[in-house]
Write a structure and sequence with these properties.
128 residues; mainly alpha; 2 domains; 3 helices
């Protein structure tokens, strides 16, 4: 058997003319400008998120104060209600995620879904 040798051709080095250098520097300047713009946008988004977190904390405190002081709810009842709402929100988000994965359209009932009573042995608790 005969092994063939591959002949490698030497690649010519790229032409480094002043025009190429100028276009390279111009493209690098545009990339740097875009990067600077992205970092400024990221900083603005971080500030907006912090503002939203502050507002969310204030609203949570206000709602808790209203429930306890004005509506006369006990703390234990409020905690159970919050946990139930969190579980339902997680369940709804999982269903919506599955619908987006399978690109299903959500059912459009004209009546609207009937509220289910809270069950202690809910099978969704084991899944999530």
């Amino acid at each position: 058997m005969r092994k063939s040798k591959k002949i490698r051709k030497k690649k010519k080095p790229a032409d480094f003319s002043p025009e190429n250098a100028l276009s390279f520097h111009a493209s690098m300047a545009s990339v740097q400008k875009r990067f600077t713009q992205f970092s400024e946008d990221l900083q603005k988004q971080d500030e907006r998120i912090q503002d939203m977190e502050i507002h969310l904390n204030l609203i949570t405190r206000l709602l808790t104060t209203l429930c306890v002081e004005k509506f006369g709810m006990r703390i234990g009842v409020l905690k159970r209600l919050i946990k139930r709402i969190e579980k339902e929100a997680i369940r709804d988000s999982q269903i919506m995620h599955l619908e987006t994965l399978y690109k299903m359209t959500p059912p459009s009932d004209k009546k609207g879904p009937s509220p289910r009573p809270f069950q202690k042995d809910d099978p969704w608790d084991e899944i999530s």
